[in-house]
Amino acid sequence: MAFYRSHVLVSVDPECVKRGAHQIIDALNDELVAQGLIDEIQVLETSRIGDPVLFGPDIIVYPEGVHYACLSPDDIPYLVEEHFLKGRIVEKFRAQEKKIVDEELGAPKAKEVRVVLRNCGVIDPNNIEDYIAEDGYMALAKVLSDMTPEQVIDEVTRSGLRGRGGAGFLTGRKWQFCRNSQADMKYIVCNADEGDPGAFMNRRVLESDPHSVIEGMIIAAYAIGARQGYIYCRAEYPLAVKTLNIAIKQAREFGFLGENILGTGFSFDLEVRQGAGAFVCGEETALMASIEGRRGEPRPRPPFPAVSGLWGKPTNINNVETYANVPQIILKGADWFASMGTEKSKGTKTFALAGDVKHTGLIEVPLGITLREIVYDVGGGIKDDKGFKAIQTGGPMGGCLPAEFLDLPVDYESLTQAGSIMGSGGMVVMDEETCMVDIARFFMEFTQEESCGKCTPCRIGTRRLLEILTRICEGKGEDGDIERLEELCDQIRTASLCGLGQGAPNPVASTLKYFRHEYEAHIYEKRCPAKVCRALITYEIVPETCTGCTVCARNCPVNAITGERRQPHKIDPDICVRCGICMQVCNFNAIVIN
Ligand SMILES: Cc1cc2nc3c(=O)[nH]c(=O)nc-3n(C[C@H](O)[C@H](O)[C@H](O)COP(=O)(O)O)c2cc1C
Ligand code: SF4
Ligand code: SF4
Ligand code: SF4
Q1: I want to staple 560 with a disulfide (CB 3.0 to 4.6 A). Which of 40, 154, 299, 575 is the partner?
Q2: Where is the 4Fe-4S ferredoxin-type domain (predicted)?
């Protein structure tokens, strides 16, 4: 297969054809022959570029991705000489920047850099030609025609890409392990089980740019020598499953999947498998058991999947975002990727920013950015201009970091050192009115519920942790509870079989470390400093402020409020169930929490 240094995609949508697209193609080919460049530059037709009504006829030159518009055949000799011979972009022919904005993502915010999300909202995920027009499958063509599997692994290793699913293992090294395993069959798996509550980074990529994941998987398959792949996608993502199946079908039709890909003799195919709701099935050994049709339970490692994975064969398993980075690394080079991030954490990372920030949602930022920049520059600061209290990174097994860590760079090592994790990209910001004991209880409720029960420290230990935390929040904390929590955290962390048990104590351990005074206030003073834990608060009416309007009394679901019209009202604390409705409906701010 010939390798071209540049590809020129000419739009042949009806509008562009009407405006002379075919004459542009002829003029380009003639000029490339005349200037001796026809073996280096390939001219291709594509179904659509940009907005045909505004521009037309349009061309895009790759790998630079330069978009020229409103061309006439007379412009072509100058364009070919300047762009392809002299390497200078011809600004006067350049199209105005596309202004397509993804509704869910919105326009990139300050400090955002979109690599993984670059095509989201820009291309039609159900049209492979859209992806091709945005340099899609060029990395695959380059790999198959110009690179050995070792060179591919070397490029990915040099880029410094680390797994985006949680553990942050070096992707190139993982591929090398799998390549080194000798077997008659090898597999590639994409972990699309995204189960962290509130996280939807992977869903967005699968629904908006499925081919970037598929292309990354084909490249990985070539690198390790696999012939079959599976995308394990959670069943709660029906649109992602549908989009993936359409994309796989189209990739087969275009010769990117199946037998003899692009005529190179390399064969690889893909299937989507659906996971049915168990968080633990995101753990790689449980995931593989689930694909094999067995109960999704983790097993001890080693052997690692690279040695013995699906059906006992060497298997490479990576996260959606990890694969989506690969085509860009191949096209733009390891050095480009490694130029973003920190010494040990390269590239960008997507996060689902949630909680008490002004702008919640999906973001993609270069690693090494500080937590402060994420909260204040990207997230717009704390809602209602309240104070910052903590940020929880890494999903339900992550830790809560206080304000003193706001200038911490977001990288794998720094977060772990601080007592949290990168995880797959969950990020919850909490304001000053958050109770950290209650937050620890909330996350423990999730992990305890999701424990598969295979090993005792996790099955019983998380339940004991939850019981103690619940007791403390209910005002029944006892002397010695803090020590009991610490001991349990240590035992569960060290004795659990898989990452769920090993990580489950993180929210408790980190809040004990950084917000110990809140535990002490709950246990010894029977007080919730954030005024959140119902059992430890009382609602009271300030007589001087109360106008006796009766609104609260009429809305109280348990008739706990009494008082004459135009006279100060009173709450009976023995009847009150602390629902907070009276406080919401009082127009005179006469109700306070003590
Ligand atoms: C309980 C649990 C849930 C996990 N869920 C996911 C998940 O939803 N997606 C994912 O990619 N990795 C998940 N992982 C991590 C995987 O086990 C594995 O490390 C990852 O898929 C490897 O891909 P990477 O190297 O590209 O990160 C989970 C791990 C644990 C312990
Ligand atoms: S640590 Fe928890 S989730 Fe993991 S195998 Fe043991 S019981 Fe199951
Ligand atoms: S709603 Fe407010 S002002 Fe009206 S009676 Fe109740 S506490 Fe008093
Ligand atoms: S908090 Fe709820 S139950 Fe208590 S007094 Fe107000 S409305 Fe009634």
Answers
A1: 575
A2: 537-566, 567-594
CB 288 within 8 A of CB 296: no
Determine the topology of domain 436-525 in CATH. de novo design (two linked rop proteins) (1.20.1440)
Ligand closest to CA 555: 4
Instruction: Band the pLDDT of 122: cuts 50, 70, 90.
Output: confident
Instruction: Evaluate if residue 546 carries a pLDDT over 90.
Output: yes
Question: Residues 8, 56: contact at Cβ < 8 Å?
Answer: no
Domain ranges of the chain: 6-93, 128-339, 348-431, 436-525, 539-593
Residues in the ligand 1 pocket, defined by CB under 6 Å = 163-167, 169, 191, 193-195, 279-280, 282-284, 317-319, 322, 424, 498-500
Report the relative pairing of strands 400-402 and 388-393 from DSSP bridges.
antiparallel
The pick from 279, 295, 452 for probing ligand 2's pocket by mutation, whose C-beta has the most ligand atoms within 8 angstroms, reads: 452
Task: Supply the CATH classification number for the domain 128-339.
Answer: 3.40.50.11540
Say yes or no: domain 539-593 is CATH 3.30.1390.20.
Answer: no
The reported pTM is 0.83
CATH classification code of 6-93: 3.40.30.10
* SS3 label, residue 226: coil
pLDDT at 198: 84
Q: Label residue 574 exposed, middle or buried (CB < 10 Å: 0-12, 13-18, 19+).
A: exposed
DSSP class per residue in 510-533: HHHHH-HHHHHHHHHS---TTS--
The DSSP element (H or E) to which 33 belongs, if any, is: helix 21-34
Task: For 476-503, give one letter per residue: b (16+ CB within 10 A) or e.
Answer: ebeeebbeebeebbeebbeebbbbbbbb
